[in-house]
Design brief:
With about 675 residues, this protein is mostly beta strands. Helix content is about 0%, strand content about 40%.
Length: about 675
């Protein structure tokens, strides 16, 4: 390794990727087991105490050490040094410094949308060539809505812009996309937007091979995609579209924050079912990959941050994926590199809640809540890594057919699985496999993935269909880097309730816990731990990620005594139920507890457009008083014998929200 040259450091708001090249003179039994030889230390410049980051990942193909420093303060200067142990003494090998991003950067120019020549009521808006600077951003306030017909391909297009903030925009419509951010954009932020009613409306549903997009010579199984008036399959119409399929792999340093993306015009087919409209209405189809609109459809050059958003479809008007990537089989596909996805609520898709597929190089996914999807998270394939999946809650799964498969699906085999996943302190409350091999590519070992797990809670719910039952971890093929330990397993379907891990790797789960984790109220979505929970204090400390209190680490996403709010957001509000199960003619109540919050904060109640069976009995807007509580009353008037799924939100004026899902069985 060369001497004192600087590390390559790439920060975001609260994390920083690091890269150290030309590391030739070392070998490790596992790519993650580097802490006996290397350690990375960091500290804020105005502090004296150095802290240790999570151990580096070693890429033997590229002779590179890389990883992420996490849980940083925004808008803060940090010093970093990489140390190597020589003769039992730590020696500084490389060093550097960086500054984390600022949520409130300096603004040089601020306009209202109505003041711009680009704005005209009823027309699409194109913002082109707006370029601020790092020390002087441009901000545009959405004081008027953008509402367009299907005449416009996008309602809002951002092209060749830099250092631009779009705040509190209301965007409705767009034939294909509501918002498109082109690949030549950098440092563009969309904050507090309300995005809806985008995409094409289906006029027919394909029967066998009569779509121009799916010739019979290539596809031999039933095709059930929705098609538009031109006979083209409706796929990937996006609430927010990032990038292009061209040579440039998407925009760079984009932030999507506190946005409400909901109620698309179109919807996706399920994996199987009965055709809903058109010439073939009522005719079953056996198997077809979902195709339809996406919440956010993305390809990035790096630096993508998606935080504190609500991305939701509707029960029988579902999205394909909530956060979907394209060019998934390429190393620069999807989120690509140096990205953060946290504090998001993702619900109501026919396929994945979130696709991480692609390079997954320093991709950090944490503190998210995912429900009402067939698969929580897809990571297949991970072509570079590492990726970090931390403190996510996956529960209440199901597509429009009420069918589900996996919490997190992985795979890629020898050809594609070149990167490692870290699964740390996640909570699963599902019936199928929680972390599972599924397969990607054409290799015999296509289900093989690289994984490291610690401190997860795997709760397999009661399931009447034996074929739908799963386990905590399913690993179809071993890999030398794989290691799973310190996780809790519980299975309601077994007489002894002992959950399982079906592993090919040896020496794993030597410190596993078997037993009911004793959540406060799992059926109501309250996944904090009771005082007597066996998950308390049984975890292994994960430096800079999950260190607990004085080294005592609880298992799962929500530690004992923590806020019950899921997804986690920086607002001191909790409710007694995050999921409600009701009958068709019923009444209900949610108690809201408010702590220390900003003054003059207000709220409004919103719900999915298709929830005509659900009504609020209390005022749908009001002021929030710090250190207080209030109740939300509601009722259901649904048809007997049918099942319904929905979600309503307590939406605050600062852009944060509390989602509460509703199930009528």
């Amino acid at each position: 390794m060369s001497g004192q040259q600087k590390l390559r450091l790439i920060p975001t708001f609260e994390n920083c990727s690091y890269y150290c090249d030309s590391v030739f003179d070392v070998t490790f039994d596992k790519a993650w087991n580097t802490s006996d030889v290397f350690r990375l230390l960091y500290k804020a410049k105005n502090e004296s105490q150095w802290c240790e980051a999570f151990p580096p990942y070693y890429d033997i193909q590229r002779f590179q050490l890389r990883g992420s420093i996490m849980n940083l303060k925004e808008n803060t200067e940090y010093d970093v040094r990489l140390e190597k142990k020589r003769k039992n003494k730590w020696i500084t090998a490389k060093k550097g410094d960086f500054v984390t991003w600022n949520s409130c950067p300096p603004i040089k120019r601020e306009w209202k949308l109505s003041e711009l020549k680009e704005y005209k009521a009823g027309s699409g808006v194109v913002l082109k060539g707006m370029k601020g600077r790092a020390d002087g951003w441009i901000k545009i306030i959405g004081d008027v809505p953008i509402e367009v017909s299907s005449t416009y391909r996008q309602a809002l297009e951002v092209d060749d812009c830099r250092y631009l903030i779009l705040e509190n925009f209301v965007v409705k419509g767009g034939k294909i996309d509501a918002v498109a951010i082109r690949e030549n954009c950098e440092n563009v932020r969309i904050v507090g937007a309300d995005i809806s009613a985008w995409g094409r409306v289906a006029v027919d549903q394909v029967h066998l091979e009569d779509s121009i997009n799916y010739p019979a010579v290539k596809y031999k199984r039933d095709n059930a995609c929705f098609i538009d008036e031109e006979g083209v399959v409706i796929r990937n119409d996006a609430g927010i579209y990032l990038g292009t399929v061209g040579k440039v792999p998407g925009p760079k340093d984009i932030v999507v924050e506190r946005c409400y993306i909901h109620d698309p015009n179109g919807h996706s087919n399920a994996w199987h079912g009965i055709r809903e409209i058109g010439r073939a209405k009522g005719i079953p189809y056996r198997f077809w990959h979902p195709q339809g609109p996406q919440g956010i459809y993305m390809r990035s050059r790096g630096g993508l941050v998606i935080r504190y958003n609500d991305v939701v479809g509707m029960d029988h008007h579902r999205l394909h994926d909530l956060l979907g990537g394209f060019n998934n089989g390429k190393i620069d596909g999807g989120m690509n590199t140096d990205a953060d996805v946290y504090g998001n609520y993702l619900a109501f898709s026919q396929d994945d809640g979130l696709e991480m597929d692609g390079g997954q190089c320093n991709i950090r996914l944490y503190n998210n809540r995912i429900e009402q999807v067939r698969v929580g998270i897809s990571t297949a394939p991970n072509m570079k890594g590492p990726s970090y999946l931390i403190r996510n809650v996956i529960f209440n799964l199901g597509d429009s057919n009420r069918e589900y498969s996996y919490g997190i699906k992985n795979g890629g085999g020898t050809m594609y699985s070149h990167g490692l996943h870290y699964f740390i302190n996640n909570t699963f409350h599902i019936s199928g496999n929680c972390i599972s091999s599924v397969g990607y590519g054409g290799d015999v070992d296509r289900g093989m993935f690289q994984g490291y797990s610690r401190n997860n809670l795997f709760f397999n719910r009661k399931e009447s269909n034996p074929k739908a039952r799963g386990c905590g971890i399913y690993e179809s093929h071993s890999h030398p880097n794989n290691h799973f330990d310190y996780d809790l397993f519980y299975d309601e379907n077994k007489k002894d309730k002992k959950g399982t891990a079906r592993l090919k790797s040896i020496g794993c789960e030597q410190h596993a816990i078997y037993g009911d984790p004793l959540f406060v109220q799992a059926d109501a979505g309250v996944f904090t731990l009771l005082p007597e929970s066996p998950a308390r204090g049984k975890g292994q400390s994960q430096c800079n990620i999950s260190e607990g209190v004085e080294g005592v680490v609880d298992l799962g996403a929500l530690a004992y005594g923590a806020s019950s709010l899921i997804p986690h957001r920086p607002i001191d509000v909790q409710v007694d139920k995050y999921k409600i199960v009701m009958s068709s003619q019923d009444t209900g109540k949610v108690e809201v507890k408010v702590g220390k919050i900003p003054d003059n904060l207000s709220y409004r109640l919103t719900k999915n457009n298709d929830m005509d069976w659900f009504a609020f009995e209390t005022e749908q807007c009001g002021k929030i008083i710090p250190n207080s509580s209030f109740s939300i009353l509601f009722n259901t008037k649904a048809s007997e014998g049918k099942s319904y799924r929905g979600v309503f939100f307590i939406r605050f004026s600062n852009g944060y929200s509390v989602p509460i899902s509703v199930n009528i069985l």
